[in-house]
């Protein structure tokens, strides 16, 4: 336990074997310090870490035991040691503010490792986020999984000036899989179908962000979410609006697909049946494998947009009177 602020001498490696350092409210300053530890808690979160640590990747477990309800503090502490965070489980973060950072999130594979921002008023501003082999399970349909690197399932979140990119674009999956970011989607690993039927995320804003290199760039659910001044590049489906989307605004965006004509549904914006109330303005949509915009819902406004260079229709509108959902057998009135 620290009894004062301490600076670690240069060239020291902290080796932890069934032990940890209690910061005791003080500051521990590294000097190119290495850390040798397994997946166990080695620091408490009462104090601070400053200086330089020579650590390739940090682990959320270093700042809290498995099973915490909120890993927000642990996440911020990890960034004090390394800008690369290695995931090996499911980690919920209720509320967090991150600014001016480069963050690399590395998982162990699809369907296993994830970060879910479950609370409200999450702020990510002026950061770069690179996602490798990290995913989250959710669902839009009863029979379909959709996977995301980062999920914002709360409300009133601000994602501003963030560059989201995935390093491993190629997946053996259908186009619904591997969403880079999901907003407004409830997520529960144990029962993802029922959880996804009741989206909880509303009134979130994506401002001046970039999304690159994923099968699906941005998944939207919930009400009154807004995407402005953002760029989408090299996706099979840059923007996907799930059936629960209501009153969505997309303004002044550049949406560019990857012209993959082998994927059914490779649209710049794909709005599922039962989407209601979308306003699309001042937006360019191009280079998509199928349609620029495929809108299957109701109450759409398109104004001052440039839709060009897509393989099939620039704008396609679907009307489905017999049922409101993706598959005919889903006729029980569920609103995913």
What can you see in these coordinates?
The chain is mostly beta strands and about 325 residues long. Residues about 135-145, about 170-175, about 190-195 and about 320-335 have low confidence and may be disordered. About 45% of the residues are buried. The termini are far apart. It has helices spanning about 70-80, 190-195, and strands at about 5, 15, 25-35, 50-55, 85, 90-95, 95-100, 100-105, 115, 125-130, 135-140, 145-150, 160-165, 180-185, 205, 210-220, 225-230, 230-240, 245-250, 255, 270, 275-280, 285, 295, 300-305, 305-310, 315. The strands form 2 sheets. It has a 23-stranded mixed beta sheet that branches. Strands 1, 2, 3 and 4 form a 4-stranded parallel beta sheet that branches.
Attribute tags:
336 residues, mainly beta, single chain, 27 strands, disordered C terminus, elongated, four-stranded parallel sheet, 2 helices
